[in-house]
Amino acid sequence: MGTLVNGVRCENLEALTFADETFDIFITQDVFEHIFDPERAAREIMRVLKPGGVHVFTAPKHKGLSKSYQRARLLGDQIEHIKEEVYHGNPVGDGRALVTWDYGDDFEELLSHWSNSTTITYINRDRKLGLDGEYLEVFVSRKRVLS
After folding, report:
1. What DSSP string describes 86-142?
2. Residue 104 included in any domain
3. Which of 146, 122, 142 is nearest to 49 (CA)?
4. Domain of 33: which CATH number?
5. In this structure, is residue 79 part of a structural domain?
6. Is residue 51 within 8 Å of 21, Cβ to Cβ?
7. Which residue segment(s) compose the domain that 117 sits in?
8. Rounded Cα gap, residues 22 and 10, in angstroms
9. Nearest to residue 131, comparing CAs of 28, 58, 68, 55?
10. Does residue 147 fall inside a structural domain?
């Protein structure tokens, strides 16, 4: 059952402790760029989704980057930096979250392959609501319904 941190359940997306087909919807926000093995995480999320369920998520997709690439990986319990270290802000711990992947134009194709599902991108640009600029993409992967 994951771990409890200040009374909040925390899970490792690469090794979820939920039973198969538990959820109709799974939401992550700006997490996939911090996962060492996003393919494994995508498979785990699909495992815990009910047929027809959806994973709704955000992750930075870099404009002008044609091919996604890994920035860091785990070798045993050590981090190997493939590219220069980059961190995003983090509300817990030391305030830094290591960026492990940079995603580009092939992101939806990668996710569809990793999750064995269709991944669709939505972009809502509305200046009246303050929605403008980069990284507005919301991705949705839907688990297939077996007939």
Report:
1. -EEE-SSTTSEEE--EEB-TTHHHHHHHHHTSEEEEEE--BGGGTB-SS--EEEEEE
2. yes
3. 142
4. 3.40.50.150
5. yes
6. yes
7. 3-142
8. 16
9. 58
10. no
Total domains, the chain: 1
Q: Give the DSSP H or E segment for 57.
A: strand 49-58
Q: How many residues does the chain have?
A: 147
CA distances from 43 to 16, 55, 82, 87 (A): 10, 11, 24, 25
Q: What single string gives the DSSP state of each residue in 2-28?
A: -EEETTEEE--TTS--SPTT-EEEEEE
Give, as one character, the DSSP assignment of residue 36: S
Q: What is the dihedral of CA 18, 19, 20, 25, to 10 degrees?
A: -50
| pLDDT tens across the length of the chain (147 residues) | 778 888 888 899 999 999 999 999 999 999 999 999 999 999 999 999 999 999 999 999 999 999 999 999 999 999 999 999 999 988 777 889 999 999 999 999 999 999 999 999 998 877 787 777 777 899 999 998 877
Report yes or no: 85 and 98 within 8 Å, Cβ to Cβ: yes
As given in the structure block, the two tokens for residue 12 are: 């490792």
Domain annotation covers residue 132: yes
In the block, residue with structure tokens 């009910």: 50
